[in-house]
Structures are given as C-alpha cells and as structure tokens.
Write a structure and sequence with these properties.
The protein has seven helices and five strands. By secondary structure, it is mainly α. It folds into two domains: 89 residues, Gyrase A, domain 2 (2-Layer Sandwich), CATH 3.30.1360; 163 residues, Multidrug efflux transporter AcrB transmembrane fold, CATH 1.20.1640.
Length: 275
C-alpha cells in the first residue's frame, strides 16, 4: 500500500496505558485494503513495515484484523519517536520523494577565515582613514584621528556592556561608523578653513567652524540613525547586528567628533601648537 491512502497520522497516547503511540486514518479504499492485509497478517502475527525512501522506519506486528481504516501503532516509543513516525506517515502522502541534489560540509575554518578577513579589512580601513586625515589636514588630522580612536573605544565598550556578539555585519557597521566620524570632522575642518579665509583668528575660526558645521552634521547623522532604527525593527539576523552597531556608532561618533576633537583643539591652542 502507498502512502496516498493515509488521510491523517498523529502522535497520541494510549487511553489505557497512557503510553505514546501513533494513530492513523485511511480513506475508504485504504480501509478496505488495510482490512484485507491485516486480516491475513494477523493469522501468523506477521509484521508490516513502514518504508519511506527505501528506509524502514518501523515494522509493527499485526495483532488483529483492523476494520474501518483507523489504526494505532504502539511499542517502546518515546514522544519523539511517535512524532517522527507520524511525520513519516504523513510525508508518504506527498506525490514526490526528496532527492539530494547537492551536499556540502562547511567546516569551522571557513567561518574563522571570514572573521579574520573582516578584522583585517577593519584595520586596513582604520589605517587608510588616519593616513588620509593627516596627509590632508596636517596636525588637525591628528585631532580627527584621536576622535576616531576614542569612537572605536567607546563603541566596543558599549557592545561589551550589552554582551553583544561581534559578527561580520557588526564589523561592517564599525567600519561605516569610522567613515561617518571622519565625515563629521571633514565638515568641521572645511568650515574652519572658510572662517580662516574670512580673516578670523584661529581660535575664533575653530569656534565658528564647529558652530556652523553642527546643523549639517546632525542632519546627516540623524538621517543615518533613522535608517538604522528601521533596519533594527524590521530586520533580522545579520541585518539586526549591522543596525545595532550602526546606531551605537553614530551616537559615539557624534560625541567624539563634536566634543573630543574640540578638546584636542583646545589643548593644542593652549600650548601654542600650530594647527
């Protein structure tokens, strides 16, 4: 008999012994054939095997003729056994069988290689950003670099306090955070340059540069933060990790770009260090 005669199968408990068992119902044609087969098998207490994809999952012994198409399969079953057997019986109703098209084994070395590649890319991005800021803005670039270092420090500290697991998307969020932090400093420095071209002193140019660049910085950072909020609430898995590091990174980058770099500039001005 094929599995298409089975209308339902489920894991259940024997009402008398309360032992796990499987109950099975058949359609009219299956009930008729099942009665004939079980009547013959019960004479010599023969077993009837349950086979799926050429694998025997169970071979219960027929105790008596079964009429009406309602059957129960009992034995030394656990609850997990009856659930699996019921699924096998229900799977037999499907018109096709499962075929393995491709099989591959992924070892832990591949995951470690991906993590190493992510960390390496983060370090390279960090070095490139620092070199660019120093080459383009001279000593002012060092103020931005110090702010970026503090930014990464604060970001990692917050993630550690949240017991967050750093994944590859999380590493990507950290790299993007370094970019946004530098972007804020670029906006500030360009405004400072404009103020210097207007004939203002270095101290006044820095103060006005931070003041006039603040609206643009907040606009860009808040927009990106809102994107992170959307990803956090509607994303899952890797997207969730990326959104988490992105939102935390934006908050820390705002703090370091506006306050830490300003403190560095004040330190340099007090000691008459050329900026």
């Amino acid at each position: 008999m094929a599995g298409d005669v089975i209308t339902d199968a489920k894991d259940d408990f024997n009402p008398q012994t309360n032992a796990p068992e499987v109950t099975m119902r058949m359609n009219s044609y299956g009930a008729k054939e099942w009665r004939r087969i079980t009547a013959k098998a019960s004479q010599n207490k023969e077993a009837i095997a349950i086979v799926l994809d050429n694998v025997v999952y169970s071979a219960p012994t027929v105790q008596s003729e079964i009429a009406g198409g309602n059957s129960s399969i009992s034995g030394n079953f656990t609850i997990e056994d009856t659930k699996d057997l019921a699924n096998v019986l229900k799977s037999g109703r499907l018109p096709t069988t499962a075929k393995i098209v491709e099989e591959a084994i992924v070892g832990p070395s591949l995951g470690q290689a991906a993590i190493d590649a992510g960390i390496s890319s983060s370090i390279i991005a960090f070095i490139v950003v620092m070199v660019f800021m120093v080459a383009y803005y001279n000593r002012a670039g060092w103020a931005a670099n110090i702010a970026v270092i503090f930014n990464v420090f604060f970001l990692m500290g917050i993630l550690a306090s949240l017991n967050a697991v750093l994944t590859l998307p999380g590493i990507a969020g950290i790299v993007l955070t370094m970019g946004t932090a530098v972007d804020a400093n670029v906006l500030i420095y360009e405004r400072v340059r404009e103020e210097l071209r207007n004939g203002k002193s270095i101290r006044q140019a820095i103060a006005d540069g931070y003041k006039h660049a603040l609206p643009s910085i907040l606009d860009s950072q808040i927009t990106t933060f809102l994107v992170g909020v959307v990803l956090f609430f509607f994303g899952s898995g890797p997207i969730l990790g990326f959104a988490t590091t992105l939102m935390i990174g934006i908050i820390t980058s705002l703090f370091t770009s506006i306050f830490i770099s300003r403190l560095v500039f004040e330190f340099m001005l007090e000691r008459d260090i050329k900026i």
